[in-house]
Amino acid sequence: MRDINSELHRQRVSESLRGKFGPESRRWKGNSAGYVAKHLWLTKHFDKGNECDRCGSTENSRLEWSNISGEHNRNRYDYNVLCPSCHRKKDLAKLKTNCPQGHEYTIKNTYINSRGHRECKICRNKSQERYRNANTNNKV
Hints:
41% of the residues lie in helices and 10% in strands. The chain has two domains: 69 residues, no CATH class; 44 residues, no CATH class.
């Protein structure tokens, strides 16, 4: 008797959930959903297109969703579509807080070049000065 009731209950629950997605689903977590769930939601509802938002490359067959703010909200405009190379560079850049010589990356001390890479302004100025000195000494 118990098996028949539990099977009937399972069928009723299954029928009640059928066709319900998003906020209508009883399992909907909204913005408290996990990382994978939000990326699956993006993949299901939005097209990635065929080019990287950062470098414009169309050669890569695989594009990835990359979060901009770090908050992982259910907001399409909080994500970029990047090729794997640009995605890795972006994520690694967040981890580095100092340049190789130990100068801290701050708003005043950071230069972003045309390729989107960060450079410490102190080290950049020293490098340009060495280059100028080397070229002026060769001209004499």
